From TrEMBL:
Keywords: Electron transport, Mitochondrion, Transport. Its cofactor is AMP; FAD. The keyword Cell division does not apply. Binds 1 AMP per subunit. Binds 1 FAD per dimer. Heterodimer of an alpha and a beta subunit. Its main location: mitochondrion. The lineage of its organism: Eukaryota, Fungi, Dikarya, Basidiomycota, Agaricomycotina. This is Probable electron transfer flavoprotein subunit beta. Belongs to the ETF beta-subunit/FixA family. InterPro entries: ET-Flavoprotein_bsu_CS (IPR000049), ETF_a/b_N (IPR014730), ETF_b (IPR012255), ETF_beta_N (IPR033948), Rossmann-like_a/b/a_fold (IPR014729).
Amino acid sequence: MRPSPISRLRLLVPIKRCIDYAVKIRVNGSQTGVDTNVKHSMNPFDEIAVEEAIRLRERLKDQVKSIKVVTIGPAKAVETLRTALAMGADSAIHVEVPETLVPEPIGVAKTLRAIIEQEGGVDMVIMGKQAIDDDAGQTGQMLAGLLSWPQATFASKIDVQADLKSIEVTREIDGGLENLKCRLPAIITTDLRLNEPRYASLPNIMKAKKKPIQKLTPADLKIDLAPRLETLKVTEPPKRQGGGRVDNVVELIEKLRVAGILAS
């Protein structure tokens, strides 16, 4: 799918409501998952994506037409959208699902594809490289495959070319840095070192309450988000045993032999 030639960039930023990074995760009583009755916030990698979209507009001025954020989640996820709007996004889409439904990466990617097709064109999708709850790190790549768009993952720097036809992305790899050039439209996933997200000011928080949020359901997009995977059981890792002290190396070796770590 190739939109018409780009005159002004339309940015789409998918975000996710996750358990806050500072919360200590605990398994729920039924061992079907983790306890979600705790503080939630925007996925940190998605905050970086929102910040980068805003910085692109600050650098490119009128060449950025719009910044739209989208989330798939329960009714409470609207709070996460308001946070992104307060940071500087223009509008939002909320695909509302039941609290108990946790969409899998392929379902999220298909939903985003449907939204892009419904919107009539998006020039760049900027999204976090992974969510801190499932750590899947798959949605961006799947979306690029579904759309047949170029992708640049784990971006630590993004430069849009003056003609708005391509971007140059610096990404971190094991051996150092890799520079990629992608034609637009494209998918970008953000790494930690891309930027540091701003705090929303009080006036912007108040303005965000008036910004539009479009409500959709999976049925509106003709998407089935039913899980393909079943979680059988979730348990906490075994508690670590307390350590001990020895007076010398001979005693250490003897203890290791008793424990079966060293052969006799």
